[in-house]
């Protein structure tokens, strides 16, 4: 073995040990959001803070810095070279934070998460506010520590979507706002769609079984993962061999669990498709949150709200819920599950108005981070924006500014990736349909999505972080991100449903 090979192995071993600690923390986090008894919260917060401090120290130190610099100067095979370059980027970024800062952030996040749970229970933002305020302060400090060009929010967005800036996202949202508004007003002139059959009574246990059936059908590997219940559905992983999804069930809302399950399965299929031999290394990780979201939105919307899918699965659904869907035709069903209507909750929004929900959060966060909006002003700002952009009155905090878990996690800079994900999804879906022969037929006649999954595995999943999001999009579809593809996808779909 050459000295360079030895050096690379040493690097790999360091990275995998750091990953061991991070994934151990992820198990505790997953447990915190699924099974942790209430009184365990305080010490759990401590445990997580300690692990995040330890993993930071294991990664950021002079020895590793020397090792990385050494490797950067060597002539390495392509994949190794890319791993080292990406690790160096991460290193340079994280080096700007001290272990004390990382610990403080983790403790503040845990306190804020439990305050958010309690605030939702009591439907009162006032309970969340005193725990959110110090977290926003820390995030503003973090932006300063990382450093940025232009807007301080750029520093935070970069963590989730490398290269995303206020300037770029503002332009994307400006471009898409008008066509979405036009489309919305056209639809609002049409006859209202009846979706009342989705709000009959659906027993929890039956919904659970239906969700598990769908997850299996779509290719979620239960030997390398499981599903549980949580307050806010999410996907996490402890390696590509252990991927966890969660869902929530509302007995009076069929849509809630079904499409959130398909969504999380989309995320999970990506994680299960990452190369296990790259465990702990950048090429074993997802490309960006925008790309992650493209996977969930592709399965949830392009596949899971599509005609082909329900041609096969509506008859299956009728076996699970014979009473509730007995008189529902495929046409009625498709119209109902694609109904466009401004509403209060992002996670349950239709494919069109969804992006207005994202825009509200994006603008709000930008202002919080630049300091032009105070934490105590959030509910008022939120409610005003919902009236202005979506035309709805927010009746209470729970269905207003307390609905998303992200801020309690300290995830500022995240929301724009939800819209980017939908736009990437439309582009990937368009290309998949051009490239995979007989895809629609396979789905509609046999309920099979295997060739789509295989295509995603080969074109997206297996690359890990090798390409950044725009490079990946261009490599797979031949073009960088273009939100016009999303607009035409949506127009065509909604027109077909008329
Ligand atoms: Zn998602």
Task: Tell me what the structure shows.
The chain is mainly alpha-helical and 498 residues long. The chain has 2 domains: 145 residues, no CATH class; 331 residues, Neurolysin, domain 3. Helices cover 65% and strands 3% of the residues. It is built from 21 helices and 3 strands. A 3-stranded mixed β-sheet has the order 1-3-2, with helices on both faces. Strand 2 and strand 3 form a beta hairpin. The longest helix has 32 residues. The chain is globular. The model has no long low-confidence stretch (mean pLDDT 96). Bound molecules: zinc ion (ZN). The site of zinc ion has 4 residues, from helix 10 and helix 11. It catalyses: Release of a C-terminal amino acid with broad specificity, except for -Pro. Its EC number is 3.4.17.19. Pfam families: Peptidase_M32 (PF02074). InterPro entries: Peptidase_M32_Taq (IPR001333).
């Amino acid at each position: 073995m050459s000295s360079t090979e030895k050096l690379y192995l040493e690097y790999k071993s360091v990275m995998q040990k750091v990953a061991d600690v991070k994934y151990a923390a992820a198990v505790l986090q997953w447990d915190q959001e699924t099974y942790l008894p209430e009184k365990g919260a305080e010490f759990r917060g401590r445990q997580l803070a300690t692990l995040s401090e330890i993993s930071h120290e294991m990664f950021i130190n002079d020895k590793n810095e020397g090792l990385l610099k050494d490797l950067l100067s060597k002539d390495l095979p392509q994949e190794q070279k890319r791993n080292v370059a990406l690790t160096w980027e991460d290193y340079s970024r994280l080096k700007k934070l001290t272990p004390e800062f990382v610990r403080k952030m983790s403790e503040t996040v845990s306190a804020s998460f439990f305050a958010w749970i309690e605030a939702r229970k009591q439907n009162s933002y006032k309970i969340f506010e005193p725990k959110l305020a110090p977290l926003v302060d820390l995030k503003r400090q973090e932006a300063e520590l990382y450093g940025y060009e232009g807007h301080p929010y750029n520093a935070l967005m970069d963590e989730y979507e490398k290269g995303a800036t206020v300037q770029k996202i503002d332009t994307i949202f400006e471009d898409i706002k008008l066509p979405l508004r036009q489309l919305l007003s056209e639809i609002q002139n049409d006859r209202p769609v009846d979706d009342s059959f989705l709000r009959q009574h659906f027993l929890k246990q039956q919904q659970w079984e239906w969700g598990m059936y769908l997850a299996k059908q779509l290719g979620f590997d239960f030997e390398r993962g499981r599903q549980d219940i949580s307050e806010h559905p999410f996907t996490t992983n402890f390696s590509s061999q252990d991927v966890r999804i969660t869902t929530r069930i509302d007995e009076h809302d069929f849509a809630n669990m079904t499409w959130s399950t398909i969504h999380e399965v989309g995320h999970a299929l990506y994680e299960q498709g990452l190369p296990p031999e790259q465990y702990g290394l950048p090429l074993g990780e997802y490309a960006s949150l925008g790309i992650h979201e493209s996977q969930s939105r592709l399965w949830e919307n392009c596949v899971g709200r599509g005609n082909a899918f329900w041609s096969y699965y509506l008859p299956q659904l009728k076996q699970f819920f014979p009473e509730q869907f007995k008189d529902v035709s495929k046409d009625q069903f498709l119209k109902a599950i694609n109904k466009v209507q401004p509403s209060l909750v992002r996670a349950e929004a239709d494919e069109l108005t969804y992006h207005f929900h994202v825009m509200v959060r994006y603008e709000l966060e930008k202002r919080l981070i630049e300091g032009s909006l105070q934490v105590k002003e959030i509910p008022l700002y939120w409610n005003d924006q919902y009236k202005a952009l979506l035309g709805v009155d927010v009746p209470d905090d729970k269905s207003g500014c307390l609905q998303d878990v992200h801020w309690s996690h300290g995830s500022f800079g995240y929301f724009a990736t939800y819209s980017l994900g939908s736009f990437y999804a439309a582009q990937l879906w368009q290309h998949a349909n051009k490239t995979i022969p007989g895809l629609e037929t396979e789905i509609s006649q046999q309920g099979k999505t295997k060739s789509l999954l295989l295509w995603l595995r080969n074109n997206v999943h297996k690359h890990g972080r090798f390409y950044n999001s725009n490079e990946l999009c261009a490599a797979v579809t031949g073009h960088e991100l273009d939100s016009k593809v999303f607009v035409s996808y949506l127009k065509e779909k909604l027109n077909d449903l008329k």
